[in-house]
Amino acid sequence: MDEYLPEIANDRVCPEDAKEEILNECESIWKRIEECQSKLMLLGTETLLQSDAKLSLLMMRVKALTAEYNQWQKRSPEEVIFTNPDVLLTLGKEELQKVKNDLEMLLLTVQSKNKKLEEDLKREQQWHEEQEQILDALNGLEEETTTQVQQFPHNSLHTRAFQELQNKMLKLRMYKEELLNALGKFLEEHFPLPEKGRSAEKKNSSEEPAVELITLNEILEILINKLMSTPHEPYVTINDSFWPPYIELLLRYGIALRHPADPNRMRLEAFHM
Prior knowledge:
Distance between the termini: 86 Å
Shape: elongated
Number of helices: 8
């Protein structure tokens, strides 16, 4: 900050004449204050007249002198207006120096804020340019995709391949339905419900099954659905509706596997793996 100080900074010390002038004026003011105080003391010793008008005037005078005395007591030497040019010049230089220092501090603060705003502006401009580049790239990708979508229906090669794939899927569904129907007929013919094969036994027995038994086809369907829906947990719990000879048949011919830790659970062999 020293480099900003003007040449007037070296003249801040009051000259000898200015000091003497200030001392003389201070002594003059002090004498006036003493005179006012002495007048106030004399007024207290005077014998007041009996007239109400005279008493009122004296009281008003006392109040006025007391107020003036208090005002002189409160005033500081800086508030005294001097008539000496040297004193006025020195005081003016000091005030200008204070204003100059305040303005320099304000200038530094404004410059710092301007620098920060410039950095923020550069970052915003860079971000704006990046966003424009991304937008241009997305627009180009959109136009390219739109062109490909518009050209796709007119491309006979892609259309033919798509139709062939649809035809193959339709044939596979039909072949699956035929296999399921043939398997169902085969199982119904050769593996009927236990009640049909044991009608004679039921006539001689008064006991009725606790639950209704299901066919072998239904057992296989349950095992297949469980394997396809939850391949990580393909085991099915064996309940009373599963006829034990059917379970033994599936296990013996390797169509189903029993759980290694729980004999009441089994799963279908994963032939597709």
